[in-house]
Amino acid sequence: MADPLADGASERIQSGTEASGSSIRYVQYTDENDLPIVMDLVDKELSEPYSIFTYRYFLHQWPHLCFISYDGDKPFGTVVCKMDLHRERMRGYVAMLVVDKAYRGKRVGSELVKMAISEMVKGGCEEVMLEAEVVNTGALRLYQGLGFVRDKRLHRYYLNGVDAYRLKLLLKLSEARLAEPAAAAETGGDGGAEVATDMIA
Ligand SMILES: CC(C)(COP(=O)(O)OP(=O)(O)OC[C@H]1O[C@@H](n2cnc3c(N)ncnc32)[C@H](O)[C@@H]1OP(=O)(O)O)[C@@H](O)C(=O)NCCC(=O)NCCS
């Protein structure tokens, strides 16, 4: 079987912005060399402990849906996602998102999620799901800003006993996108994901 990481590495996405004197870059996950970087960032920030098998589950199958933000050579943020069929529709899922405390409030978290969603759109996803703690106002605000809406409340979803909101973002159907190139192009001006808030349920 072909190595699923090989293609991703050759088509690796990189983008950069200059912000307040520092150079912030966004780099797509490449291979196992990036795994400790992602694990360190996530383990430091999330309440939920993940095993290396969980990380490998996501990163081996969907390396193109993981991005790492760097300040120079220093990694400081990451997003880990997946996408698969759900009731005959492609569905994206944001599994992990963290930004180091020193870099928060600069829209890096939003940018990481937008880059992952952009890849999901390319892969034909029609919706994106995720869960966030009901007390995590920062994450809820970030996702609300990207057009996510609350789908349901999950009682004691996390190991720490906290409830979660399941959040959902509906994306334009890929077929509609192909049929209406002008409409699809109108949201793609900033290089980020084409997030269609007009399709939210
Ligand atoms: C949640 C997290 C990723 C946000 O990263 P970030 O880079 O600071 O987020 P952004 O700068 O893109 O913020 C996007 C929006 O959310 C708001 N926001 C972010 N953190 C906030 C906070 N703690 N309180 C209130 N609003 C917050 C921003 O003000 C911004 O709102 P605006 O669009 O109205 O201006 C970061 O705080 C983090 O890593 N937290 C710990 C891990 C975590 O909770 N991950 C999410 C799991 S679901």
UniProtKB/TrEMBL annotation:
Signal peptide region: none
Coiled-coil intervals, chain numbering: none
CDD domains linked to this entry: NAT_SF
Keyword list, A-Z: Acyltransferase, Transferase
GO molecular function: protein-N-terminal amino-acid acetyltransferase activity
Domain called N-acetyltransferase: residue spans: 24-172
InterPro entries reported for this sequence: Acyl_CoA_acyltransferase, GNAT_dom, NAA30-like
One annotated Gene Ontology cellular component of this protein: NatC complex
Pfam families with a match to the protein in the record: Acetyltransf_1
Family: Belongs to the acetyltransferase family. MAK3 subfamily.
PANTHER family, alphabetized: N-ALPHA-ACETYLTRANSFERASE 30 (PTHR45896:SF1)
Protein name: N-acetyltransferase domain-containing protein
Source organism of this protein record: Volvox carteri f. nagariensis
